What we know:
Layout: H1 2-38, H2 46-54, H3 65-90, H4 100-103, H5 117-130, H6 132-168, H7 173-205, H8 230-255
Amino acid sequence: MWLREAEAEVQRQKREAPVLLTEQEARTELLRKKARLSAPGGDKSGSDLISLDSEKPSGHLNLFQGLQEVSNKEYQEEKKQEKERKEKALGILTYLGQSAAESQTSAPWYQELPDRSKAIAKDEKLKGRLDPLAEMGKYLYKKCSHKKEEKKEKGKSKHKESKGNLALRPPSSSTSCCLEQLRQERLQHEQAERARTESLLAQRSGMGPFREEEEEMDERKRGYNSQFNPQLARKSVVRDSRIEWAEESKEKAEEKPATAPPPPSCGHF
Length: 269
């Protein structure tokens, strides 16, 4: 806006420059004539002064002088209003009882709140893009979906293979034997559990025989676990094997009958 005003001012000065130059020359000529008359020995008659005052400056005839004067007045008024508006905006021109902020049509820049919504939105978007948790979530989601698809495909293929194998494979004797063996083991297990339950109930009711308390094993005779102490477990195994060998050899020696010494031979006299 100020650039346009400056250009308009330059154009106006160019248009008014010839007029101002002509007026300046006319005033200079008039002042020279007055100086000649006021000099000593000069003619100071009123008629000469009137004639000098009535003289017009020499120059071209301007037919639009009245319009130019009117337009110049309007321009001066506009220029004055523009100057007042700028001074009010800067806080230079104020009226009585009015502050610089009140004189302005809009609030000054230092009283306006900055618009941080765009900056905040941009910052949030950047944080969301660089957030490692979001990247991990995307990766886990892709991984889980990929695993689910693989499981579905494997399940479908296994289901198809099992259907085809069952339809094509006849029941074999080995399968029936395995099923019979598993059935017998299950029945034996159920029978043992039933007997154990009955004995426990009988002991609690006082009708059944009490089990002898198991003899507590001496802690010093317990072996070492090979998982935590392999070297000690190996030594204990060697020692136990030696003890067993010694006991077996002792038992064999006891079982073998003792050989009696031969009787003395009697000679014939």
